[in-house]
Design goal:
alpha/beta; 7-stranded mixed sheet; 5-stranded mixed sheet; 14 helices; 12 strands; globular; binds pyridoxal-5'-phosphate
């Protein structure tokens, strides 16, 4: 494999196939194997001492990884033009925690988007508060005007675009530019888009977080997270991650690499299927609103059109009137949609969604349902949802 196929001038789908496959890591086969190990053995005391000063991409101790993890991490870096490096974590939430702890210290203030994934909010209200970091929430639709919220204590802005459950698309470049002008760090949870649909570092983000559990793994069979750093924060991210003792297990990293090779293909199909289902839902009389970034009614749709290369498979819709009993009747009878957390696998999923807010209250015409559209034929999914909407209608009367 020449380095050319991985070059930044290659298109993303090409880089995705070649990324991270250094010959010294693949040892002459197509994909890196699973290297399992804790202890690394040295030939001499002198060699053991010398290695301590230069551990990057060198076997040192299991926690620093093996070619299995380095390969996936490097592949994720290659998908982010401008990035300096990537580290892996045993879950997406662990990656979020490492990113926050890389940039925050006691006495600092964090600006957190109000549409954030709930476990991230819990981390701020729990651990960060306990360690003296104050969190203030901001409206997901704030753009450059976020600068008005900066104080002398503001150290970081956390973004998630589109937002969890409600899918507001943020003006990421404007927020990052405003933050950078004040020396404030930015962290983006880019799980929905992945670097294929939104290369975050190129849009000005300092730390880009993925719950690789979702589209990178892609088969609902492993937990994994990553943080990709711009050059200015790469060393700080490494230090914090090593001090926290974080590393992904080699078998899970291998599943991540396995999933990554087909991610472009899967995302394309997830996106097409989801858009077909979303467009159908938008025309149903029982549906008040469809919250899908690629549809004009979604808050922040203009930013989506400007910045994203496409949509993935996750969106939500608000029912027209009705209550939790009606929504439950809809969900309980679904035959093709699993009821469960997480998403990004090949199968369709549905959950009742009840957004938690601090500064930008969530108001809708009825209860919210979040869907992950899998790789099934969308016509079958639509038939399943049509029966569900009929059950909702029957309870409503
Ligand atoms: C699922 C998810 C996470 C957390 O990932 P885990 O691997 O489940 O810990 C973080 N952010 C977003 C947006 C998610 O959907």
């Amino acid at each position: 494999m020449s380095g050319d196929a991985r070059g930044p001038d290659r298109r993303p789908a090409t880089r995705l196939v070649a990324a991270g496959r250094r010959p010294e890591w693949t040892q002459g086969i197509v994909s890196p194997s699973v290297w399992r190990g804790s202890t690394v053995l040295y030939d001499s005391v002198a060699e053991l001492r010398a290695r301590q000063h230069d551990t990057h991409h060198k076997l040192y101790y299991g926690r620093r990884g093996t070619p299995t993890q380095w390969s996936l991490a490097e592949a994720l870096t290659e998908l982010e033009p401008g990035a300096a490096g990537t580290l892996l974590y045993p879950s997406g939430v662990a990656a979020v925690a490492a990113a926050l702890l890389t940039v925050l210290s006691p006495g600092d203030e964090l600006l957190m988007v109000d549409s954030v994934y709930e476990p991230t909010r819990n981390l701020c209200e729990g651990l960060l508060a306990r360690f003296g970091v104050a969190t203030r929430y901001y409206d997901p639709l704030a753009g450059a005007d976020i600068a008005a919220a900066f104080t002398d204590r503001t150290r970081a802005v956390f973004l998630e675009s589109p937002g969890s459950l409600t899918f507001e698309v943020q003006d990421v470049p404007a927020i990052c530019a405003a933050a950078q002008a004040r020396g404030i760090r930015t962290i983006l949870d880019n799980t929905w888009a992945t670097p294929l649909l939104f290369p975050a570092i190129g849009h000005g983000v300092d730390l880009s977080v993925l719950a690789c559990t979702k589209y990178v793994v892609g088969h609902s069979d492993a937990m994994l997270g990553s943080v990709t750093a711009a050059p200015g924060l790469w060393q700080a991210l490494r230090r914090t991650t090593y001090q926290l003792g974080q590393q992904a297990a080699p078998d899970d990293a291998w599943l991540g690499s396995r999933g990554l090779r087909t991610m472009e293909l899967r995302l394309t199909r997830h996106g097409e299927n989801a858009l077909a289902v979303a467009r159908w839902l938008a025309e149903q009389p029982q549906v008040a609103r469809v919250l899908h970034p690629a549809l004009p009614g979604c808050p922040g749709h203009a930013a989506f059109v400007r910045d994203f290369a496409g949509a993935s498979g996750l969106f939500a819709f608000a029912l027209k009137g009705g209550d939790d009993a009606g929504r439950t009747a809809l969900l309980d009878g679904l035959e093709l949609f699993g009821l469960g957390f997480s998403w990004g696998g090949f199968e369709s999923l549905a959950i009742p969604a009840d957004p938690m807010r601090t500064v930008a209250p969530w108001r809708a015409e009825g209860p919210l349902v979040r869907l992950h559209i899998g790789l099934e034929d969308p016509a079958d999914l639509i038939a399943d949802l049509a029966a569900g909407l009929a059950r909702f209608e029957a309870v409503k009367r």
